[in-house]
Design brief:
2 copies of one chain form a homodimer. The first copy, chain A, is mainly alpha-helical. Chain A has a 3-stranded antiparallel sheet with strand order 1-3-2. In chain A, strand 2 and strand 3 form a beta hairpin. The longest helix of chain A is centred in the last third of the chain and has 26 residues. Chain A is globular, with a radius of gyration of 17 Å.
């Protein structure tokens, strides 16, 4: 069997090209789409929670949030009960982009799964979910302090 | 059904964290792993061929190759029959990294597919391959001049 990740990563990169062609907003690039979706779904998350939810390291979260704040897409406030926790909120500007980001994500999901029978899709998604659990466990075991 | 891409992209990002923890070579980051694998598999490919094979845009290819050349991992030569085609070759330094990059990729593939029955994996891979075809077709149709 060919390597799963080679194919999986290609689909992910094609999606990135697709998004870049579709979304034209001031400074929002394909690599920010996940941030838009996650921040709007969980307003008031801490930076650490965003890193865990998105599965990237903290330094990338910090760098991306600095950029999004500079462009006016988010605000950050210290948690009133624990000043070290920095909470992230979407601005009106980010909320205005959200419907388009969601529509592009939906369109891509439909595009890649069209013509695939429901029973095969069901097995596919079941396997994919188990792979996600293994993937997250593998990284959390080894990289907690860096996440 | 939850969105396929959300799960798929999380697995991809976990792999990136895994690689970053594992591979320690001068300047080689997780985002370069695919370049290492593809350039070593296809020495003498043009920059445009690499963009198509990896499924990223030409400007990202150019930027990454500039970096890898600066770090001594590749050399670039104009095609003797068509001076506008720039061909990319791995150096000894890149070839020395290849076994480790391959081993990490193999380890990750095994890690995420362990405990999944062979018949389910077979359906999974069949669906994933069809998704890849749809993904590539969608991007190629719309973005030829930019790829």
């Amino acid at each position: 069997m060919p390597t799963i990740m080679k194919t999986l990563n290609r689909i992910s990169r094609c999606q990135s090209l697709f998004r870049n062609e579709r979304l034209q907003h001031d400074g929002i690039l394909s690599c920010h789409h996940t941030f838009v979706l996650v921040i709007c779904r969980n307003p008031g998350s801490s930076q650490d929670e965003l890193a865990r939810e998105i599965c990237i390291n903290k330094s990338t979260v910090t760098r991306t949030l600095n950029y999004l704040e500079e462009k006016g897409y988010i605000t950050r406030r210290a948690d009133s009960e624990d000043k070290r926790r920095i909470l992230v909120y979407p601005t009106e500007k980010m909320l205005a982009v959200l419907p388009e980001v969601r529509a592009i994500a939906r369109e891509w999901n439909e595009l890649i799964s069209k013509d695939i029978p429901e029973d095969e899709l069901s097995v596919f998604y079941s396997v994919l979910s188990r792979m996600e659990l293994s993937a997250k466990a593998a990284v959390e075991c080894r990289g907690d302090e860096d996440r």
